[in-house]
Amino acid sequence: MPLSEPDAIETPSTPPAARSLGELKSAGYRFRTVKEELRENACARLAAKLPLFPGIVGYGESVEPQIAAGLLSLHDLLLLGLRGQAKTRILRAMVGLLDEWIPVIDDASVELRDDPLVPRTSAGRRVVALRGDNTPVRWVHRRERYVEKLATPDVTIADLIGEIDLVKYAQGRTLGDEATMHFGLIPRANRGLFVINELPDLSPRIQVGLFNVLEERDVQIRGFTVRLELDVCLMFSANPEDYTNRGRIVTPLKDRIGSVVRTHYPSDNREAMRITRENAFVDRAATSKKSGTAVELPPIIHEIIEETIRQARKSPHINQASGVSVRASIAAVENVVSGAELRGVKTGEPVVSVRPCDLAMVAPALRGKIELMLADDGQTGKDGKPVEDKLIEALVGEAIKTLLSRRLSVDALAGIADAFKNGLKLELGDAVSASDAYANMKLVPGLPEAIGELGKKLEMDTRNEQHKAVLGELVLEFLYVNNRLSKRGGTYAR
């Protein structure tokens, strides 16, 4: 699941004052590998009762302990889970567990980041041997120590590890000298984190090229062994192999990855609502001055959307190996809020509440975000309506039925349905203002009383016309999904 708030742009503090190896030693600098940094900083954060990843919702008792165990074990990590489960955002948040500043050798001949106290590259060792305590030092912020690569079938060994630089070779350097290399992304991530997203999409022969990097931390280029004692922590993300048809993680590579952590979707609607609310563009206060309309999202409408997503995650018509991303609920919430905002622009209402009629905007948000089973994909019904749209409509209806059945009884509302027997029609489309909608609702015997009762159960203000319009539509929608009323567009009838 996603972080509950956007990644903050960290404002770096002032780097330490030391500018040479001698000054570093005098300041008591202690070298630690990247994995030791992650381990010690994770321990310090947990000891202080702080979350490993501030803002993460729903992983505190499941995913975070597994990640913490991997970090304390000095492991490389693989996050395995369906789309939209915050795998990439967690990996990016790992940067926060690194030291804010680290020193590296400041010399043009040292192409890779190298520690001045414990240099690992031949170029770094030469500089330290030549200049000793006068070796110049510069400070690198942790934001610069994160390198990420999206795996695609066209990624090469040269991209990840490196290639012989023919210009350097022509200058007289030997093929076995690391200085002859044009370094790839992994060596350039030295003293930092290197992340590969969607690991199964990396071709098997390239995955094989990672074996030595993960286990022995050395690389071979065109048959020449170039010993690079890399200090790097490798992390990966992947969808389960039974989903991706483009590739798989080769078994020997999985064997070399220290810990595999499975992520998951929110465990309940309340948790999902919190995640969505904190990630979605819902608060239109900053922009309402331009549109002239402020929008309120009633919790029950939001819960219907999350229940729709929950229903989708267990529907036999949807490929569950693909998953239904949290991004689907975020987009759906944003769309229904925008639907209400559009109504406010048209009707001139300064404040509008999202109503059930706005749930029609869920369909454009979910199209393409749910992967239908092959038998349903691309099909249309007898009415010419795409199966995907019919399925989304059915999921929304099932969500309304599930949630309102806890608060309403179909039998108790039978009198409202009977009022439509003599040809009564009630128009409550998305272009009807709340005051007009409620004025029409008052003409239906029993509906105002049902609005009052439902308002108490949902803790909504039944003196507020916007809320009364929401509650009235919920009652009518409940009758509709239970086949007691019919609906065409926004018009309810028998």
What does this structure look like?
By secondary structure, the protein is of the alpha/beta class. It has three domains: 21-262, Rossmann fold; 265-404, no CATH class; 407-494, Arc Repressor Mutant, subunit A. It has 21 helices and 16 strands. The strands form six sheets. The chain has a five-stranded parallel beta sheet with strand order 4-7-10-1-11. A three-stranded antiparallel beta sheet has the order 14-16-15. A two-stranded antiparallel ribbon has the order 2-3. Helix 19 (434-441) packs across helix 21. The protein is elongated, with a radius of gyration of 29 Å. The model is unreliable at 1-8 (pLDDT under 50).
Keywords, separated by commas or semicolons:
Arc Repressor Mutant, subunit A, elongated, 21 helices, 13% strand, 494 residues, 39% helix, alpha/beta, Rossmann fold, 3 domains, single chain
